[in-house]
Design goal:
680 residues, four-stranded parallel beta sheet, 22 helices, 25 strands, 32% helix, 13% strand, globular
Length: 680
Amino acid sequence: MSLFEGHRFLIIQSSQLSATKAENLKKQIISTGYNEDGGILLKRNSDLIPISNDKLANVTLIVSNTIDFVEYQLAEELMIPVVRDAWVVDSIAANLIETLRSYSPDPKYFLSTVSICCAASICKGDKEILFSAVRSFGGIHTDYLSRRTTHLIALDTDDDICRMAIAFNQACERELIAIVRPEWLLDSIISKRKLEDDRYRVGSKDRYAEPATSVLFKGRIFFLHEDFNISSRVSSSLKTLIEQHGGKVDSEDRANTYIGKYRGGEMYQLAFEEKWPIGNLNWLFWMLLREEWIAPGKIMLHYPYPREALEGMDRVVVSVTHYTGDSRLYLQQLVEIMGGTFTKNLRQFTTTHLLVAKPTGEKYKYAREWNIKCLNHLWLEESYAKWELQDDSDPRYLKFGDQVGVAHAVGHTSLDVGLTSSQNPRTDSQNVSSSLETPRKKAKPNSKPYNIVAILTGCDQEFSASDLRNLNKVGIKVVEQPTNSLNCIIAPGILRTEKFLKSLSKSPKYLLTPIFLMDVLATVRSHKLDDFERVKPHIDKYDLSKHINFKKDPKMKEIFLDPSLGAQNIVNLIENSNSKLFESGDFCVSATIPGGPDLISSIVKSFGCRECLIIDKKTKRLPKRVAATRYLLCEAKDQPLQNHFRKLADKERYRIVEWNWVVMSIFNTKLVDRFIIDES
């Protein structure tokens, strides 16, 4: 049996993982006895078009040394692990599957190399918060010391687990397990980087946090419920986290946002009736990680948990097969919150249900032989969402692998709408009340506060028909495709998506973060329309340039000629983007260009190109040139096509360029001198 049995790989080639290394990696995987037909896909990170959703949903693991590829965002949503190539190499060397989280290429998971364990001196409430925190930022946690433990969290060293760690370090003659105070982990999250261990030794009191500020929670006043049962030191750190991102923590009479562990109680009921956002600390950490607001009902484990176990769940023992990484952890959490038992190993007379991602492998085989119920994850998720065990003979729960589809991937089930607040949340209870008290000023009759026609791209948020109507009331129209009236692009960052690139040809006036729409909707819901002008969110606060680190983000170096100019690059985009950028050129587009020639041609045409011919080595002649220069757009390695093009172009003025030349020219609003393969 292969070490990687059941896995289906997507390997992303990039400047950090060359085509040669990717091919060698594929050979190494196959050398373990891996023989899944079509189970290893290779793709370049510069390819504009993602692989189909259905094909991506069938991938169980992505190997990439960068997160700069078009599938990354969807992979995160589908909980498909993304690991560096070292994970494959190390797993083969150790002849066991290494922890996936430790190999993430995503810099936002700055605790990916951390594995914590808590000593007896850490109370249960603090332990739960610390575990949630380290998990959210890429690390792992265990209840006991293991070979992977890097940090033991403690207030003193007077217990067995601390003595074991000290003895282990002495035997190794070096400190492999750092014994640190809880503040080390909390201050690391406050600083958004892993801090040095030495400064947080047990017994010391100093703190060395370097707060990273933002306006993520501006206007939001949080009420932290006491049902977490946490210490003042942890509570203080949570308050600091919220305040450094523009929010406040205050009493119930001033709050407009609720964070609690459980559903129930007077404050929960009040928050529910007042339609505040209601979430738990998983929700808070998720937003801090991504610097992005999300409605807490969208992901089930972001909402406070029921206090009591689900009836009948005490008799349920669940194991899983072919669910990996975060999806496996997510299912385990659901089982345990519901009151069931999660087990790694399948046991003939104990395990009652096996959740099956793909109907292959030893677990699935024995589960069938032992008459253990084999179901997909939807049975568990819908049981949680409806807080009632669902019929495990329902045909919908008996579909596996490709039959389930991307729309029903792990984590995509929402909580039921309309149940009472003591059971499940209403997913429309996400409004934010304003705490501002200033004199009223009515808007002018028949005028709207904004004049925005916007397109959304790369956004996690989903907006209902009701949301779109509310946005339209205040002058924000959201369109699906770029139109001549478009004046705004809303995206989480500078993207290379088709929508983003084509929209730049419409000379947009604004480039804004998605938080803008969330804040506008929250303000619409909490104020009368006549009052909206007085309290409306100001556009300049949501300028995309304020949410980009031009010096540290490697993507900026790939698309801007001079990233050191910082926000001035965005100013240039807004002031100089237009639909005439490529009007001085006729384009010949390689039939085999990554992303597909039709899509690439449509992008080039949106910037003024009049003639765009799809070309291959069989093309016999070129049409009459109508512009000043003839371009060939192809891959640098496609020398046969380049030689063929030179013969066809004869004595004409030509230029042979890569796709990155097009991208960089668009973002710099001029024809650049990079990524030019040849010119006459």
